Amino acid sequence: xxxxxRAHQAQSAExxxxxxxxxxHKAEAGTLRELVEQFRPTQKSSRxxxxxEAPEVK
Length: 58
Hints:
The protein is mainly alpha-helical. Helix content is 66%, strand content 0%.
């Protein structure tokens, strides 16, 4: 019985650590999504090129 109790406690500790890691990763993913939205370029109607041709490279 003592062996089962120790195994259960070890599994409970591992589960707690896994749940904490999941919570941290979810928070990080949420932060990254917010940053991507913040820095996403705005949609502009068709951009027109100025000057017609690209400048000559020397």
